[in-house]
Amino acid sequence: MTAITRSASTTVMPEGVNVAKVDYDNQSTLVSALRGQDVLIITMAASAPKDIHIKLVEAAAEADVPYIIPNGWGLDATHPVSDDAFIGPPQRAVYKRIEELGKSAWINFVSGFWYQFSLVGGPNAFGFDIENRSVTFFDDGTARINTSTWDQTGRAVANFLSLKEKPENGEDERLTISGFRNKNVFFSSFLVSQKDMFQSILRATRTKEDDWKITHEPSEQRYKSAVESFRQGDRAGFVRAMFTRMFYPEGSGNGSGAFEATNNLQNDLLNLSKEDIDELTKAAIEKPGQFRRNYS
Questions:
Q1: 148 contacts: CB under 8 Å, gap ≥ 6
Q2: pTM for this structure?
Q3: Measured between alpha carbons, how far is 215 from 54 in angstroms, rounded to an integer?
Q4: What share of the chain is helix, strand, coil (3-state, %, to 5)?
Q5: N or C: which terminus of the chain carries fewer CB neighbours within 10 A?
Q6: 4-33 b/e (C-beta count within 10 Å ≥ 16 → b)
Q7: CA–CA separation, 41 vs 15, rounded Å?
Q8: What is the pLDDT of residue 17?
Q9: How much is the pLDDT for 212?
Q10: What parts of the chain have a pLDDT lower than 50?
Q11: Are 87 and 73 in contact (CB under 8 A)?
Q12: How far apart are CA 34 and CA 22, in angstroms?
């Protein structure tokens, strides 16, 4: 395993990980780092320069890397809702470039928003301000979405890459890595609503609903207001719009972010265990610093 990092980076990598220092303005350093690799996993901050993604996929093509897992942000960039969340167009541009180069295939992991990270991320995320015991429910708070934990995401990627690359002796290609060329891999920890999360929070904090300030806001109104705020330069508006859009009611109790309603989950193929939502809620609340990036 090799980690690519900037020449000036002082990040300490885990033991056993090879480190390749690169200069993103010198493509040859990227190509050299990627030679002989089976897969490139791109995990960059949203604040990273926009051209870095393309530089990486172009270097991967030159280095003959067969598979690329781009930054996917947990969403399905082929679904129209991703455009309202601002993720779709740039993601599809990356997919298009990979396909144009013809050397690699993209594979995107659709996890939904990270559960603990979003739960303690402030009211612009899942609507909870746990420290001040307040919650804003979008509409009536019952629209369900798919969400996954960090650990489940790590297991999904690791177990996927442990599959056979190609079928043998008449095996079903859909059970191999090659069967997901230029496709999404859908997995999830929970299909839950804000109210489901709230009940878990109450159990974790041993509080009652009367201990909390509860408000409601129409999801469409909240989304449009957030988009306008973002257009005026408020970064928090982007986050609020992206999260809110996933809770738009779509029928049968599901929100737009309930991707398992229209896609097959690969939890069984990836041998993913069932998780205890109360246990994970409690861990996030007790040690929020491990997960938090406050979006207030």
A1: 74, 111, 112, 114, 115, 156, 187, 188, 189, 190
A2: 0.92
A3: 43
A4: 40, 20, 45
A5: N
A6: beeeeeeeeeeeeeeeeebebeeeebbbeb
A7: 19
A8: 86
A9: 98
A10: 296
A11: yes
A12: 11
CB atoms within 10 A of CB 66: 16
Q: For residue 290, what pLDDT is reported? A: 67
What is the rounded distance in angstroms from the CA atom of residue 229 to the CA atom of residue 271?
42
Contact 5, 48 (CB under 8 A): no
Contact 209, 136 (CB under 8 A): no
Q: Apex CA 151: angle with CA 36 and CA 87, to 5°? A: 75
Beta-bridged to residue 6, according to DSSP, are 22
Residue 134 is predicted with a pLDDT of 98
Rg of the chain in Å (alpha carbons)? 20
The pLDDT of residue 293 is 57
56 with 23: CB under 8 angstroms?
no
